Amino acid sequence: MNYQTTSSIDEETKKVSKKRKVSNESNYKPTSAYIGASWGVLMIGLVSYCIGLWNASMELNEKGYYFSILLMGIYAVISLQKAVRDKAEEIKVSEMYYGISWVVVIAAILLLIIGLRNADLLLSEKGFYGISFLLSLFGAITVQKNTRDIDFINNKTEEEK
Question: How far is it, in rounded angstroms, from Cα 105 to Cα 54?
Answer without folding.
Answer: 24
